[in-house]
Design a protein that fits this description.
There is one protein chain. Strands 6-7-8-3-9-10 form a 6-stranded mixed β-sheet, sandwiched between helices. A 4-stranded antiparallel β-sheet has the order 2-1-4-5. The two termini are 41 Å apart. It has 11 helices and 14 strands. Helix 3 packs across helix 4, helix 8 crosses helix 11 and helix 9 runs antiparallel to helix 10. By secondary structure, the protein is α/β, with parallel strands linked by helices. Strand 4 and strand 5 form a beta hairpin. The chain has 2 domains: 216 residues, Rossmann fold (3-Layer(aba) Sandwich); 64 residues, 2-Layer Sandwich (Alpha-Beta Plaits), CATH 3.30.70. Bound molecules: adenosine-5'-triphosphate and magnesium ion. The site of magnesium ion has 4 residues, from helix 1.
Length: 310
């Protein structure tokens, strides 16, 4: 059994709205799976169901081979969640928070003390352990949020945008921590809006849109399958010249008008495209090449940019 987390036909309805349709996903032991999707795609709902925080409308969840619905305690013990919203008590110290969360997972005595010390060390908060959380910086609170999710050393760690709104120093710290945990064999599910984090961290990526998985694979697979190198062009000239240039270019590539610019994916190199564009008397004011990347694959699959997280 090498599957750490298995979702089968998992879905959630909120009234008439299907937040998540019927999702199938396997996360292998030791891998880091990235979950990408635009706002409202259903990432948090999916993760919340997988962690037993939200009750699914349909489908099943197994964590480390244990079915969540059959043995909630046994399954949840294998899993740690670092939620999108801070979930620590700010009237308590880090130590008190970790004692509380550790006890929830059944840790006691020496084992609890040992795990707390380990978690504080991992996130770099040992020196501030007895300070009240309210007096922490935002980044330190985020780090404690992470410590609360790992204090019981789960097999699977699920992180929902752990670096959003965090200063660069703490962001880097959190990122390196997750990398180290994965290096130690922890299975990671990582949701982020930061493409470079996902590219640096994740073995595979699942792209979610409209409550369904639209693609899943390694970054190389997604880029090869869904992302195309192309150019964006601004043309100048009379409307007739520009229209004729567009039509001429269409013989040498796939031509699309997006937000006022011309997007062209050449079928046989750029030279014939440029020649066709200039053959009608129109002039090229700007030409910019688009590298094939996870970002362009995401754009092709969802029609949205990832950074559109306002
Ligand atoms: N408690 C709830 N009641 C009603 N609708 C909800 C609830 N939680 C989520 N939804 C809806 O479900 C859909 C998916 O939301 P979800 O929070 O899972 O998206 P997300 O992918 O995590 O987005 P974001 O990137 O903004 O965090 C949205 O349309 C949202 O409005
Ligand atoms: Mg979310």
């Amino acid at each position: 059994m090498t599957t750490a987390l298995s979702l089968r036909g998992l879905g959630k309805d909120y009234g008439a709205r299907k937040a998540v349709h019927a999702l199938d996903l396997d996360v292998e032991r030791g891998e880091c799976l990235g979950l990408l999707g635009p706002n409202g795609a259903g990432k948090t709902t999916t993760i919340s169901m997988a962690c037993g925080v939200v009750t699914p409308t349909r489908g099943t969840i197994a964590i480390g081979g244990i079915e969540l619905a059959r043995d909630p305690h046994g399954a949840k013990r294998k899993l740690g969640l670092v939620p999108q919203q801070l979930a620590v008590y700010d009237e308590l110290s880090a130590l008190q928070n970790l004692r509380y969360f550790g006890a929830l997972y059944g840790l006691r005595g020496d084992e609890l003390a040992h795990r707390i010390d380990w978690a504080l060390g991992v996130v770099g908060l040992r020196e501030r352990a007895t300070d009240i959380v309210k007096t922490y910086s935002g980044g330190m609170q985020r780090r404690l949020n992470l410590a609360s999710g790992i204090v019981h050393k789960p097999e699977v760690l699920v992180l929902d945008e752990p670096t959003v709104g965090v200063d660069p120093q703490s962001r880097n710290h959190i990122f390196e921590t997750v990398k180290a945990l994965q290096g130690d064999g922890m299975t990671i599910v990582y949701t982020s809006h930061y493409m470079e984090e996902v590219e640096a961290l994740c073995d595979r990526v699942a792209i979610i849109d409209g409550g369904a998985i639209v693609a899943v694979g390694t970054i190389a697979e997604l880029v090869a399958e869904h992302s195309q190198r192309g150019v964006a062009v601004d043309l100048a000239g009379t409307p007739e010249q520009v229209a004729a240039a567009e039509a001429a270019a269409a013989a040498h590539g796939v031509v699309e008008r997006v937000d006022g610019e011309l997007r062209i994916v050449p079928t046989a190199g750029l030279a014939p495209v440029v020649a066709a564009l200039e053959s009608t008397g129109a002039t090229i004011e700007r030409i910019e090449s688009h590298r094939a990347s996870l970002e362009t694959a995401f754009l092709a699959l969802t029609g949205k940019t990832l950074r559109d997280d306002a």
